[in-house]
Amino acid sequence: MKAAEIVNLLNNYLPGHSLEQAFYTSDDIFHLDRELIWKKYWLFAGVTAEIPKEGDYITYAVGHDSVIIIRGREGKVHAHFNTCRHRGSTICQDEKGHAPKLMCPYHQWVYNTDGSLFKARLMPDDFDRASYGLHPVHIRLIEGLIFISLAEEPVDFDPVVRDLAPYVKTYQVDQSKVAFKKSYTIRTNWKLIAENFRECYHCGPAHPEYCKAVVGANLRESVDDILVERRASWKSKGLVTEGVDFQTDTFHFATRYPLRDGVESYSLDGKAVAIPMGAHKDYDAGVVGLVCYPNFWMDAVGDYVWTMRITAESASQCRIDLTWLVDGKAEEGRDYNIERLTEFWKITGEQDWKLCENNFNGIESSRYQPGPYAPVELEVAKFVEWYVERLREGVEATSIVELP
């Protein structure tokens, strides 16, 4: 696709409508997505509960870039590009592990957890180790949530920390327990997943379990009265109740909304599935919903946290990584059961994966045309407008990013 064609597509975008086919299917557009969004903005990489001890690490791969996230001295968390400074070999080849020091498997160069070069075998005496530490990756923590940026100068993350931290704090994620993880490979474009998770137009027919738990999810009833009542209760417990709206010049969102009367948790029977998490003393916390574009979603109830990490692998493929967190003192078999803990989001998530794959299949048709959003899809329209503006900014700033 020529640069002029991409500019023309951006100029012809019709607000309030879905995107032209190429934005979902073109490899060239995907290249722009990766350069102007995935390599510029902040990416959710995992949670500190996955690396509780010094030397514990996880890796996260985005495109050709693999990142090591490792717990260092005094609990500090570091992020480094996973490429040896000798001849470039990948250092950590597993998605998680433990290494008091990081050793390249090729020629055994050894690095400290902070990325500094500890030992370079058989190098001359005058070799300057200080000049060959691992390349650092920008890293920020939000109460145990780990975000990284691959950019040399990432966009300002302070507003995200300020707005999301009060919602996350009560869950004490850093002291939590990773109860379960599951990954999916989905044949769809990453933007279709983002769009799907910003509307409930589809919830009534597609998510009976979700609608049974959440007031107003079926779009046939008002949530206003019960929300006023619940907010008073939440405020009395010191919980944050004021939402954070998503705007075209931001990239995050936060809300707290109510479960139905008698529903304690996201579960198939509405009953709690674990002991109250973190600082929560009961199950009256509603649902905390957090988003940080392009790849982070979190839903949390009084007894567990569910995170979703999207990784765009191509124009037509995404990896979805789900993590369920419970209180750090919870014991499996006594305080929670894996099947009951995970079944609600396993069912709801797989319903969404099927919808997103089907959506992509239809968009590939020669007869696909952008359609108008319904009023209840306002948040989808706002996301799409945000996305288009980010590409416009990038294209204007660089006179078009070089295509492969």
Automatic annotation (TrEMBL):
Rieske domain sequence ranges: 42-148
Cofactor(s) required, per the database record: Fe cation
Protein name as it appears in the record: Rieske 2Fe-2S family protein
Domain of life of the native organism: Bacteria
An example molecular function term from Gene Ontology annotations: iron ion binding
Gene3D superfamilies listed in its UniProt record: Naphthalene 1,2-dioxygenase Alpha Subunit, Chain A, domain 1, Rieske [2Fe-2S] iron-sulphur domain
Metal-binding listed as a keyword: yes
Record key words, sorted: 2Fe-2S, Iron, Iron-sulfur, Metal-binding, Oxidoreductase
